Every structure is written in structure tokens, then in C-alpha cells.
């Protein structure tokens, strides 16, 4: 069974000191590097939040406060600080992430009108990123997922992996949550298990 490691959004803006820093984010990077060192993955894919300036998921683009919610193109949208803007330092991958074995990069969130948490598609389920096509082209059947953040982009990427027919595993030690609300990480794990994701320690 061919397998791929999907590393979700390990970018400067989501790490300590970034515009949308996830608590404990730097702790997962040595774990992810070790996974790549100790396992023979057929493909290693990075996803990269890649927003145009003025993206509609930014609070600043809507005259709102960070933490508010609006309806954006028919779906609920949390208002985030400006982050991962194309071509900026914040959008770059963290320098400590070993990219020697990376075979493909998927950029998401490029449409200014709609956010894209999942590495597979936007939040409207309208535009695909090409990740599913890439994995299927390479006969990948099993995906292992790590990265940031557990309760948003990691969760939706894992759920979409299951929906697209992959045996899907999440490395709990390779992810951290934003935890806008205290129980978000726990709830995300439960949701993923219900959808068929296997959670590994």
C-alpha cells in the first residue's frame, strides 16, 4: 500500500511569533522531521496557505474584529488576523522543517473570496486544489497527516482524505490546535474519529 505524508501549513505565521501563532507549534517540527527520517513515504506533500492581500477571511478586509464570525459566500467564516499573504515571510515554511524529501507543494486559499482550510478543496466545496488528483496519480492509498492547526486545516484535510477514499491517519504528536474555545482540540479529535480517521499517538 503506497503512502503519503501530508504536512499541513507549517508556515511562519502559524508558528511562534507569527501573525496567527498556534500555541506549541514549534514542538511538532522535530517530530515531523523524525517521521520523514524513519519512514519510507512514497510522497511527502506540503500544503501552504497562500492568501492574496485583502483576503475576505481577514477581519481587516471586512471592518470586523478578529474572532467575529460572518457569512461569506453562504458559509460561516471566522474572522482571522491577516496571515500567510502571498510572497511574505509569514507565508514561508518554517526554516526548521526539513524539506529534503518533499515531493509536492499544494497552495490553498488563493481565491480572495473564499477560505480554504482543507488541503483538498475550498470551504465552499467548489474549487479543488489538485491534491486528490496528485495522490491518485501516484497510486497513494494511505495518508498520514500532521501540521497546523488541528482544529481547522488539519481536521478538514483529514476528513476530506477519508471522503476521497484514503486510509487516513492523524499523528496526534505532530499537530497543535488554535483552541479559539478551550475544547476545540478535543472536539476536533472526536469529529475526525467519527469520520473514520485513525488517531495515532
Biggest sheet statistics:
6 strands, parallel
Please provide the count of β strands: 8
Q: How many separate domains?
A: 1
Mean pLDDT: 97
Which bin fits the share of residues in helices? 10-25%
The gyration radius over C-alpha positions equals 16 Å
What would your notes on this structure say?
- The chain has a single domain (3-51, 89-199), classed as Isochorismatase-like (Rossmann fold).
- The protein has a six-stranded parallel beta sheet. A two-stranded antiparallel sheet has the order 3-4.
- Strand 6, helix 4 and strand 7 (167-176) form a beta-alpha-beta unit.
- The chain has helices at residues 28-38, 59-62, 131-137, 150-163, 184-195, and strands spanning 2-8, 43-49, 69-72, 75-78, 104-108, 140-148, 167-176, 198-200.
- The chain is of the alpha/beta class and 201 residues long.
- Helix content is 24%, strand content 24%.
- The longest helix has 14 residues, at 150-163.
- Pathway: Cofactor biosynthesis; nicotinate biosynthesis; nicotinate from nicotinamide: step 1/1.
- Keywords: Hydrolase, Metal-binding, Pyridine nucleotide biosynthesis.
- Belongs to the isochorismatase family.
- InterPro entries: Isochorismatase-like_dom, Isochorismatase-like_sf, Isochorismatase_Nicotinamidase.
Amino acid at each position: 500500500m503506497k503512502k503519503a505524508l501530508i504536512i499541513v501549513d507549517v508556515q511562519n505565521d502559524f508558528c511562534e511569533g507569527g501573525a496567527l501563532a498556534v500555541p506549541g507549534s514549534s514542538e511538532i517540527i522535530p517530530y515531523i522531521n523524525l517521521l520523514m527520517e524513519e519512514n519510507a513515504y512514497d510522497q511527502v506533500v506540503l500544503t501552504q496557505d497562500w492568501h492574496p492581500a485583502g483576503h475576505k477571511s481577514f477581519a481587516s478586509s471586512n471592518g470586523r474584529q478578529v474572532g467575529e464570525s460572518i457569512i461569506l459566500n453562504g458559509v460561516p467564516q471566522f474572522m482571522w488576523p491577516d496571515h500567510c499573504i502571498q510572497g511574505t515571510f509569514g507565508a514561508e515554511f518554517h526554516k526548521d522543517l526539513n524539506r529534503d524529501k518533499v515531493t509536492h507543494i499544494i497552495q490553498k486559499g488563493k481565491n480572495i473570496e473564499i477560505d480554504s482550510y482543507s488541503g483538498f478543496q475550498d470551504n465552499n466545496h467548489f474549487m479543488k486544489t489538485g491534491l486528490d488528483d496528485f495522490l491518485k496519480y501516484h497510486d497513494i492509498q494511505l495518508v498520514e497527516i500532521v501540521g497546523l492547526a488541528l482544529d481547522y486545516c488539519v481536521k478538514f484535510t483529514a476528513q476530506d482524505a477519508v471522503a476521497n477514499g484514503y486510509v487516513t491517519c492523524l499523528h496526534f504528536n505532530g499537530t497543535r490546535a488554535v483552541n479559539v474555545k478551550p475544547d476545540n482540540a478535543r472536539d476536533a479529535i472526536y469529529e475526525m474519529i467519527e469520520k473514520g480517521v485513525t488517531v495515532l499517538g
